Amino acid sequence: MEAIRLGDFNKLTVVKTVDFGLYLDGGKAGEILLPSRYIPEGTEVGDELEVFIYLDQEERIIATTETPLAKVGDFAFLEVKWVNEYGAFLGWGLMKDLFCPFREQKKKMELGEGYIVHIHIDEESYRIVASAKVDRYLSKEPCPYKHGEEVDLLIWQKTELGFKVIINNQYAGLIYSDQVFSYIHTGDRIKGFINTVRPDGKIDVTLQKTGRQQTLDFSDTLLDYIRAHEGVCPYGDKSEAEDIYREFQVSKKVFKKAVGDLYKKKLITVSPLELKLV
User: Fold this and answer.
1) Which of 14, 90, 154, 269 has its CA 20 to 30 A from that of 33?
2) pTM (2 decimals)?
3) Which residue, 193, 166, 260, 175, is CA-closest to 222?
4) Taking a C-beta distance cutoff of 8 angstroms, is the pair 168, 152 a contact?
């Protein structure tokens, strides 16, 4: 069998049962205990189970059927559960909290606060640990993304320009403030779209679809809005951009393109501060 992936999910076969749980075949890692509280009802010797493998309080390899908030190789937003003289311990959905030593903290972590961290295996101790110095774990390789491509985003931190994000658990990116039309904060996981990959490798992302597809999608939304409001939209080309943002969560540029699209299709009439269904 393949080597055990510590800090990840593994499919392992039940080899024997004991009073306090059952043992799984861990190959070279030996037999791995799955405590009684995690055993699915009806499990028998010979069954294959998908379990998460980590280290217990005694640093022994152990299995669980619980699902953690993140696994080794992931970036995640985790809350500090307790602090001692060695570092902070973060809740990640398992019995044993995740350790973040002081040397891996950008600033001293405080009880009850949440932080973006990277989860990895410490090469010296073989322990699963977290690091708040996430920059060093982001890919420096050229990214493969194209304009308009949909991606998964983890909101990282607020800056003067907007929000730094982690793209697809791999690359750093930025959402500019003028592209944000709803409340977001550190730790949110949302969908986004690639806007620009710059020559220096920096990536700009947006929360809305870009280009023609965005116009088409919002055209449908705007038409539905007008139909739902008795054939009238109280916004037009001369309406304030802020009012349009507040009502539709799109820029005035996108709004005007959609208006033009519907007008060309002869679906609406247009006046400076109003649209009407034909």
Assistant:
1) 90
2) 0.77
3) 260
4) yes
In the chain, the N- to C-terminal Cα span, in Å, equals 68
Question: 35: which residues sit within 8 A by CB, 6+ positions away?
Answer: 20, 21, 62, 64
The alpha-helical segments, DSSP class H, found in the chain are: 211-228, 241-248, 252-264
Residue type at position 3: A
What single string gives the DSSP state of each residue in 129-166?
Answer: EEES-GGGGS--SPP---TT-EEEEEEEEE-SSEEEEE
State the sign of the Cα–Cα–Cα–Cα dihedral 82, 88, 90, 96.
negative
Taking residue 7's Cβ as centre, other Cβ atoms within 10 Å add up to 22
Are the CB atoms for 75 and 172 separated by under 8 Å?
no
Name the 3-class secondary structure at 248: helix
Q: What confidence tens digit (pLDDT) does each residue in 84-126 have?
A: 999 999 999 999 999 999 999 999 999 999 999 999 999 888 8
